[in-house]
Write a structure and sequence with these properties.
Helix content is about 25%, strand content about 30%. The chain is an alpha+beta fold and about 550 residues long. Helix 11 runs antiparallel to helix 13. The structure holds guanosine-5'-triphosphate (GTP).
């Protein structure tokens, strides 16, 4: 396929502005899928995406489009909108020359519209602004065009007004893709060179890598090398994603597709790796900046006998989601496990859900924490650091963009939900790391009959210590079954107890017998701290905020 008739682009936007719906229409109009009422977010293939109605994984589809008597190959990548998955967007952008920046005609520019615009702008991609949902009664495309002009400095004439739902003007989007986005700068005459920008693990075929071919060509039977490990493989299968795998004989410079080359171990297919022909070594492409984990949590098998199975499930899933960091960890109560880093709380929840749904794994997850840097010194400044306003820009007379410096642990758990409900859904939110700041934090222990429970030790702000300690003790009291003796549950800072509860001991004898039986059944799910038996699921319920 001639390189000058290839266009690689992705669709970026704030969450729910209609990327996946526009992708459906583009697939239909180019005949990649049949036109039916049922086409709803076709590229959202994962169960978790269907259940939550959001995109969490970027998906690729190759489309054939006839324009002025010529056939074009359009490679489309649909990306997630939520801030926690922005790593998917930055990776997708590296395989493209242009983007469709979708903005809701009613909501206008939102936090992730701005964040995603800058990702594309910094990568020097052609940006096509698309105003979606013009069919809505409250649509105000005029105003959104003014916002785009003001905030992004893009002339309003360049905006395309569409309804992805009804298909209005979607043909204009396809024409703009062909006319405005440049073809990839790649030559089939160069040695073969491809960037692995995504990959997943197939139980039967091993690693399936998504690649963008930056030069040359590759075919079945070729011997290729992955630059990262320097290992050689034979190409078993390759082809286009339309959006399902569509095997072809070759892949050429400028194309985006998939390749299967007998990689059996997930460590062999690093995202960001470069592939080349064994007889024609090339210099590796720059790859990707590693994602910066913001939220950490411990993850343990329900039972230690499930350790190996869970390990391979986590390895395979992180192959498909390379923004998760994994470190081995162990805990007295929960045994051997891992400490995982995520980009946010939604990311963590989605990862757990995918482990359960796609790998049938059941896990214990400990309280999410954010990274702290402890400076050990005798005195320190004691000052309560709350949010500090950095700047404020009026986007128009109804919308304002404000920048604040926040402690990460203040925003990571429920800030987004709170902001949404306080603003009746109007406010949107995005964040980036601003580095470590000194704060008045203390370590709080939870004690059972005087013994610290290691997995419940947390870092809290001094002002929150009392209320957090109290809430944790109460929840722990409710989740420990009655035992034959009294149990003292305490929250303590150093040697100072700040909250204390005592459980009753078992009353009548039948109740005691029942309890003993139940305990025997659940023996392996119990954790002994001193003389107290604690069910494993109690740890999770204590950590969960109600
Ligand atoms: P994420 O991938 O989760 O970020 O969302 P998205 O941007 O892909 O949005 P999606 O396509 O899932 O659409 C979000 C909602 O907007 C869905 O309920 C769509 O039916 C609706 N929607 C999309 N396009 C239009 C449109 O042109 N008009 C109207 N009225 N609704 C639309």
């Amino acid at each position: 396929f001639p390189v000058d008739r290839i266009r690689n682009f992705c669709i970026i936007a704030h969450i729910d502005h209609g990327k996946s719906t526009l992708a459906d229409r583009l697939l239909e109009m180019t005949g990649a899928i049949a036109k039916t009422e049922k086409n709803k977010q076709v590229l959202d293939k994962l169960q978790v995406e269907r259940e939550r109605g959001i995109t969490v994984k970027a998906q690729t589809a190759s489309l054939f489009y006839n324009h002025e008597g010529q056939q074009y190959l359009l490679n489309l990548i649909d990306t997630p909108g939520h801030v926690d998955f922005s790593y998917e967007v930055s990776r997708s952008i590296s395989a493209c020359q242009g983007v469709l920046l979708i903005v809701d005609a009613n909501q206008g520019i939102q936090a992730q519209t701005v964040a995603n615009f800058y990702l594309a702008f910094e990568a020097q991609l052609t940006i096509i602004p698309v105003i979606n949902k013009i069919d809505l009664k409250n649509a105000d495309p005029e105003r959104v065009e003014s916002q785009i002009e003001k905030v992004f400095d893009i002339p309003r004439e360049e905006c395309i007004r569409i309804s992805a739902k009804l298909g209005t003007n979607v043909d204009k989007v396809l024409q703009a893709v062909v006319n405005r986005i440049p073809p990839p700068q790649a030559s089939t005459e160069d040695p073969f060179k491809a960037l692995v920008f995504d990959s997943n693990f197939d139980h039967y075929r091993g690693v399936v890598a998504n690649i963008a071919v930056f030069g040359g060509r590759v075919k079945k039977g070729d011997k290729i090398v992955s630059a990262h490990l320097g290992k050689a493989y034979e190409v078993n299968e390759l082809g286009l994603l339309r959006p399902d795998e569509h095997p072809t004989q070759k892949l050429f410079a400028g194309q985006v597709g998939y390749i299967i080359a007998g990689m059996k171990d997930v460590k062999e297919a690093q995202i960001g790796d470069t592939l080349y022909l064994q007889e024609q070594p090339v210099e590796a492409l720059p790859g990707f900046k590693p994602a910066k984990a913001m939220v950490f949590a411990g993850m343990y098998p329900m039972d230690q006998s499930e350790y190996t199975g869970l390990r391979s499930a986590i390895e395979r899933l992180t192959l498909n989601d390379s923004s998760v960091t994994v470190q081995r960890d162990s805990s007295l109560a929960l045994g051997a496990g891992w400490r995982l880093g995520f980009l946010g709380l939604l990311h963590m929840e989605v990862f757990n859900q995918r482990l359960e749904q796609e790998y049938n794994a059941s896990v214990i997850v400990t309280a999410p924490t954010v990274p702290y840097k402890a400076v050990l010194s005798s005195a320190k400044l004691i000052k309560n650091r709350r949010a500090v306003q950095k700047n404020m820009v009026y986007i128009d007379d109804q919308r304002v963009m404000m920048k604040y410096l926040f402690p990460l642990n203040e925003i990571v758990v429920d800030f987004y939900d709170l902001l949404k409900s306080l603003s009746s859904g109007y406010a949107s939110f995005d964040y980036e790391n601003a580095g470590y700041q000194a704060a008045d934090l203390i370590k709080m222990d939870i004690l059972l009959n005087g013994r610290p429970v290691e997995e419940l030790t947390t870092v809290v702000h001094r002002e929150r210590a009392y209320s957090t300690g109290k809430a944790m003790c109460e929840r722990l009291k409710d989740s420990i079954p009655r035992q034959m003796f009294e149990i003292a549950i305490q929250a303590a800072i150093g040697s100072k107890v700040i909250s204390k509860y005592t459980t009753d001991y078992g009353g009548d004898i039948t109740r005691k017998m029942k309890l003993l039986k139940k305990q025997a059944e659940g023996k392996k799910k119990m954790r002994r701290i001193g003389n107290v038996e604690v069910p494993k699921d109690a740890f999770i319920s204590v950590l969960k905020r109600k």
